[in-house]
Amino acid sequence: MPDILIVDDSPVDRQMIGDFVTRSGNASSFANDGEEALALIERQRPDCVLTDLQMPVMDGLELVKRIRRDFSSVPVILMTAHGSEDIAVEALQSGAASYVAKRRMKSDLGEALRVVLEAAASVHERSEVRKVLHRIEAEFHVGYESGAVRALVSYLQHDLIRINFCDDTELIRVGTALTEALSNAIDHGNLELDSKLRELPGDVYRDLGNERARQLPYRDRRVIVRTIVTPAEVTYVIRDQGTGFDLSKIPDPTDPENLILPYGRGVMLINCFMDEVRFNDVGNEITMVKRYGSTAVVE
After folding, report:
1. Distance of alpha carbon 256 from alpha carbon 27, whole angstroms
2. Run of H or E residues at 175
3. Rounded CA gap, 279 and 222, in Å?
4. CB 69 within 8 A of CB 94
5. N or C: which end of the chain has fewer CB within 10 A?
6. Angle, CA 71 vertex, CA 182 and CA 236 arms, to 5°
7. Using alpha carbons only, how large is the chain's radius of gyration in Å?
8. Which residue range(s) make up the domain with 65?
9. For each successive 10 residues of the chain (299 residues), what is the average pLDDT?
């Protein structure tokens, strides 16, 4: 069972978040601030750190930077509150793997943990580094196969490992961006699921998705993934076969005010973790570019 280290100076919030973590099928441990968290990580590495931003002694931003420097294989998820948007964006740019708005903890935490832990798991399970490759090109067609997204993300991460492209933290962040983009293409693109369905009680969103996956025209749609990996950069082009969407309706991913909105978090994370992101005019294709040297690289 994955262990999640919860870092928050509020005893009430620690207890509440601990309950959510337990309900999502994970174990939890606790720290009052960043310094205590680092001491706990030194003694026993957690599978993920879930931290508040505004704390005494050492705040969440400094904790993210220290974990990135000293424990790069441990992913960090931020807990954001109104008024902390600017520092949250800086923390994402400094190494955090994801974020969850505190007021949406109950509905969003489980999915955020799932995405980040799956991305981290594929890093821990990686094989030995192979000889440096000059260029890798591939194309994949993804339907609704169980486990397909995780398997594909793991495969693409291994492409980066083989040429020693980035450190563990960036590998997790690339994996998170890929998972978000693929999930968006499947759910919102091919299955045409509205994010607002997540707000309804029960599991209406996923139940409708499972139903549509068996119906025409949705069942025959595929997500086309094209990849080019070179020593200088990696490019991912992900295209769904849905009807597309209005790009003007996507919240501005560079505006910190949009960090706490209930929709568009996937695009926010993708823009924080990739060096270049662009959509086609129809809105059913995203191109993501990650460049070598944009972050620390393992020697």
Report:
1. 31
2. helix 168-184
3. 18
4. no
5. C
6. 20
7. 19
8. 3-123
9. 94 93 93 95 95 90 93 91 78 90 88 90 55 79 95 93 83 94 95 86 90 96 96 95 81 61 74 93 95 60
